[in-house]
Amino acid sequence: MNPPLSHDVIIAGCGPTGAMLAAELRLHDVRVLVLEKETEPVSSARVVGLHMRSVELMAMRGLLDRMLEHGRRRPAGGFFAAIDKPAPEGLDSAHPYLLGIPQPVIVRLLEQHAIQGGAQVRRCRAVAAFEQDDEGVTVRQDDGERLRSRYLVGCDGGRSTVRKLLGVGFPGEPSRTETLMGEMEVGVPQEEIAAKVTEIQQTDRRFGLRPCGGGVYRVVVPVAGVGEGAKPPTLEDFRRQLRAVAGTDFGVHSPRRLSRFGDATRLAERYRVGRVLLAGDAAHIHPPTGGQGLNLGVQDAFNLGWKLAAQIHGWAPETLLDTYHAERHPVAADVLDNTRAQMELLSTGPGPRAVRRLLAELMDFDEVNRHLIEKIAAIGIRYDFGEGPDLLGRRLRDIDVAQGRLYGLLHRGRGLLLDRTGRLTAGGWSDRVDHLADPTAALDVPCVLLRPDGHVAWIGDDQRDLDDHLSRWFGEPAD
To answer: How far, in Å, are 29, 35, 56, 342, 475 from residue 26 at the CA level?
Structure first.
C-alpha cells in the first residue's frame, strides 16, 4: 500500500539548484518538500560568483538586492581559461558584471527565499529508495519513513542517489587531476605573495592566491594525479602542496573553508524518466573553470520550475515537460565542451600554451571576445523554438517599460505579453499570462510573448498566431 499523497514534489538536495527549484514551484502554490542529508549548509569555497544570466534570474524574482548586499560586482572579462581580456562594451545585459558572492551565502539566501515562500526543508534526511507508478512516486527516506508525491527531482549532486537508483547513464571522463581550493590567512607580506604568484602563473594558470578581505586569501593549488576518496583536504594538505608547487607554504593558517575538486566531466543521458527528473550536478558535472557549475544548476531550476508546476496544475501542453530535457541537455553539453577546452588551455605543455597564446590574440577581436563571454555568462543561449527572427528563443534583456523595468513584471513567475500595438489580448490565459500594452517599450518588434523564464516564445502582431503560441506554451484557454 502506498502512503497517502502528502506533497506535489519532493526535491532531493537543498543546494543552490534544489533551493531555487523549491522557490520557483512555490510561486505556483505547488506543495514542496526538500530533503537534505546535511545538518547545515555545506561550507565550500568552490563557487564564488553569479554570471550575468544568473544575476538576471535573481532580478526576475526580486532577489537581486539581497544578493547585492552580500556580494561584490566584478568586471565581466577574463573568465575564459583565465585569459586576461577586458569585456567588450555594450554587452546585451542590464547587469554586465560578475557578482562575487560565496556559495554558502547563495545557498542560504535561496533556501530562506524558498522557506519564506512556503517550502518545507527537512535536514538530516536523504532519499534511500523510491518507486514510481502512473500516479506518483513513493520515496523511502534513510530513516525508513515513506512519503508520497506526484514527482521527485534529484538535485543531490554529482554522486546523485536519485540518478543511480533511476538507472540513468552518466557517460563522460573521470578525473585526471585535482585542485585544492580554500580560504585561509597567510603569514607573509602581500608583495611576496604577488611576486610568487606572478612567477608561477607564467606556466601554471591553475595556481593562485587572491586576497578576499579581512586578511583572508583564496588559495587555489593544483595537485598531481587523483587521490582516493572524496574526503575534504586538511590544512596540512594545503601546506604540503604549496611547498611542492611554490617552494613555500606562505605561512597559511586559520582556515575558513577547505575543499577539493577533480576535473571529471559527465552528462546524464536523460533528465527525465517518468515522474523523476534530474537537475544541477545530478545531471552534469565538469571542472569549475569559468565558474559555470552553480550557475548552470540554478538555470536548470529556473527552466524546470514553471513547467513542472504547469504539469501539476493540469494546464501543461502534452510535451511541455519534455522541453526541459530538450532545452537544457544541449546547454549542459556545450558547457562541458567549453570547460574541456579551457582545461586544455590551462595545461602546462608547450602545445596547449601555444594554442592559449593564439586564442589570446584572437580575443583582441571584439566578436571573438564577445562570443566567449556570452557563452560563459549564458546570455547567448537560444532555445530552438522553430523558424523565426533571431530574438525568438533567446532571453529578453531587462529593458525599460512604462511601469519601470521589465524584470520587475516577472516576479510572480507568470508569462508576459508585451504588446506595443495595444490591439492584442491574452484573454483566455489571463490566469497564467500577464498583458502589458506598452507602446513605450524599448523593442524594435510589435509584440513579444515571454515565458516565465524570460525567453521569447513568440514575436508578431497577429491575434490568431498569438493564440496558437499561447496554447503551445500555456495550454488550452480557461473557460
So the answer is: 5, 16, 20, 37, 20
In angstroms, what CA-CA distances link 464 with 415, 418, 461, 468, 470?
18, 16, 9, 6, 10
Q: pTM for the full model?
A: 0.93
Q: Per residue, what are the HEC states of the chain?
A: CCCCCCEEEEEECCCHHHHHHHHHHHCCCCCEEEEECCCCCCCCCCCCEECHHHHHHHHHCCCHHHHHHHCEEECCCCCHHHCCCCCCCCCCCCCCCEEECCHHHHHHHHHHHHHHCCCEEEECCCEEEEEECCCCEEEEECCCCEEEEEEEEECCCCCCHHHHHHCCCCCEECCCCEEEEEEEECCCCHHHHHHHHHHHCCCCCCCEEEECCCCEEEEEEEECCCCCCCCCCCHHHHHHHHHHHHCCCCCCEEEEEEEEEECCEEECCCCEECCEEECHHHCEECCCCCCCHHHHHHHHHHHHHHHHHHHHHCCCCCCCCHHHHHHHHHHHHHHHHHHHHHHHHCCCCHHHHHHHHHHHHHCCCHHHHHHHHHHHHCCCCECCCCCCCCCCCEECCCCEECCEEHHHHHCCCCEEEEECCCCCCCHHHCCCEEEEECCCCCCCCCEEEECCCCEEEEEECCHHHHHHHHHHHHCCCCC
Q: Express each pLDDT in 425-454 by its tens digit.
A: 999 999 999 999 877 778 889 999 999 999
Residues 274/113, Cβ–Cβ less than 8 Å:
no
- Quote the CA–CA distance of 56 and 450 in Å, as a whole number: 15
Contact 16, 41 (CB under 8 A): no
Q: Which residue's C-alpha cell is 544575476? A: 55
How far apart are alpha carbons 365 and 236 in whole angstroms? 44
Task: Compute the distance between CA of residue 66 and CA of residue 114 in angstroms, rounded to an integer.
Answer: 14
Q: Mention every residue, 6+ apart, whose C-beta is less than 8 A from residue 259.
A: 44, 45, 46, 180, 181, 182, 232, 233
Q: How far apart are CA 453 and CA 301, in angstroms?
A: 10
Print burial letters for 332-341: b (CB count within 10 Å at least 16), e (below 16). Answer: bebbbebbbb
Model pLDDT for residues 304-362, shown as the tens digit of each residue: 999 999 999 999 999 999 999 999 999 999 999 999 999 999 888 889 999 999 999 99
pLDDT of residue 168: 98
Distance between CA 9 and CA 14 in Å, rounded? 13
Strand partners, 436: 418
Q: What is the pLDDT of residue 262?
A: 85
pLDDT tens-digit readout, 167-225: 999 999 998 888 898 999 999 999 999 999 999 988 888 899 989 888 899 999 988 77
